[in-house]
Amino acid sequence: MMPPVIMRIRLKEKGKRRFRLWLPLILLWPLALLVFILLIPFLVILSLLDSRSRKLTAAIPALYRTICSLRGLRVDIVEEDERIFIEFA
Predict the structure, then answer these.
(1) Whole-prediction pTM
(2) Per-residue pLDDT tens for 35-54?
(3) Could you tell me the residue ranges of all domains in the chain?
């Protein structure tokens, strides 16, 4: 499983110029990895002290799978004179 690398956003209004934006999400993954590495010791200590916090450590892989499942998601909203398109690739 691989998380999405690019998010494309397109906005179009009737009578106005189209707006397109490509966001390279791949640049955010090293930052997210760094935050995760910094949080690991706190999560381990918390799970040793409190049995209820083990659910939190079990939620981390679920969060990763949820982010990975965004890959290929397309949202296309069309109204009378507006269109919004978001895609995760």
Answers:
(1) 0.73
(2) 989 988 888 888 788 777 77
(3) 6-88
